[in-house]
Predict the structure.
Amino acid sequence: MSKIVVLGAGMVGRAMAIDLSKNHTVCSVDINEVSLKNLQNKNISTIKADLSDGDKIKDIVKDFDLVIGAVPGFMGYNTCKSVIEAGRNIVDISFFPEDCFGLDELAKAMNVIAIVDCGVAPGMDNIILGYHSKLMDVENFECYVGGLPVKREKPFEYKAPFSPIDVLEEYTRPARYVENSHIITKPALSDPEYIDFEEVGTLEAFNSDGLRSLMFTMNVPNMKEKTLRYPGHIEYIKVLRDSGFFEHNEVNIKGVGISPMEFTSKVLFNKWKLGPEEKEFTIMRVIVEGKENGQQKKYVYSLFDIYNESTKTSSMARTTGYTATATANLILEGRFNRKGIIPPEFLGEDAGAFRYIMNYLNQRGIYYNLK
């Protein structure tokens, strides 16, 4: 049995700790006692600690074989850096905004495997593209993805399976995509389009900054990623954004400085918080097109996953978390040993790793159906 420490005991962090505890000794770390308490009857040890303290992280992880990073995005880069400095392999799902390759030299110097963005998207879409990039000359890559509640409640018809402030960043960060081998930048929420899905009907897609490392690691002339929501969601969000509710600069209210973004996130937290057993689903469509063996080929992967009632695990926790736990097992079994910063597309380039992760997900009822 390997010893694994999971940094962060939020919804996805808890799901990963539980999944890994079936075959490993697992410890979960968080500052929130309530989150930790939910794990204490599941054969998982816990540590209450402030994960914004880099020295504390180094002290905690030194006794473990592998680290899972599941902190909020704004903490992710420094957390990952501290783990690498401690000389420990890490699989991270924090999706931090900084350039992950800024840690590549350090990771190689420390002989560390640091796999970042290892979730559903970014994550599995990267893995799929990486896999096909070794088999064909990819000309076009598209990913449409979203996590939504089954029950639609006005006005937003949305619930956040993770930190609302991380979701709001999707609505403010400029969206980059690749067109004719050039990086194009547009505002988030731009280029809306309606797309039909057999499982849920019509959804609305908009530009979001989800390509991340793919823009620099994959030589594909056309790539885009769009986020999916119920129709009408974009207009509500645009009203808030254009009215200044997502600004980071503090405003003074009766002598007190407050960031509109922090205020909005706090207000929306209760509106967007998933209930303990609320049904939600993850839906994704990944399209890879190009020439394979001299012929034009098109591969379409479709994912539809819903809240698991038997294990009481949300779909977003399953689809995000189990990609990371599959990868953790891949490393612990010695099946992947590439050192440095590893975005998921590097995993997909290894056909054995691709098949291992797909099989691991299938065993847990998560299927990327290929058409």
In short: The mean pLDDT is 95.
